[in-house]
Design brief:
By secondary structure, the protein is mostly helical. It has four helices and no strands. The relative contact order is 0.04.
Length: about 110
């Protein structure tokens, strides 16, 4: 199957970003994480109210997570461009990944209890 056979609807980076933000904000695990994790880092005796402390800590966490996401996307783009430009690297990666999948399948097949 050639690349001309694929029917892929490409999105603009801006649209993809805002869709991912919407998914993350509306995901229940996000709220559970903030409710379970962040309160332990607040101080009831601090000058700032608890809600303000949570807002500040939540903002810092979001900036850190978003920075990690952006870094992963940039690195993935560079790796993808490298593999697209190198046929031998693509073959080696396919052979390696195929071998890993084969080894995992054999492991599952022979270690059934």
């Amino acid at each position: 199957m050639g690349s001309a056979d694929l029917n892929v609807d490409l999105k603009s980076p801006r649209k993809a970003f805002w869709e991912s933000v919407t998914v993350e904000v509306l995901h229940p695990k996000t709220a559970i994480f903030y409710l379970a994790f962040l309160p332990q880092f607040t101080d009831p005796n601090a000058v700032l109210a608890i809600w303000m402390q949570l807002l500040i800590i939540g903002t810092i966490v979001n900036v850190m997570f978003s920075s990690a996401d952006v870094l992963c996307v940039v690195l993935a783009h560079k790796v993808t461009a490298y593999f697209k430009g190198s046929g031998s690297a693509t073959r080696i990666a396919q052979q390696f990944c195929g071998s890993v999948l084969l080894a995992l399948g054999l492991n599952v097949a022979f270690n059934r209890q």
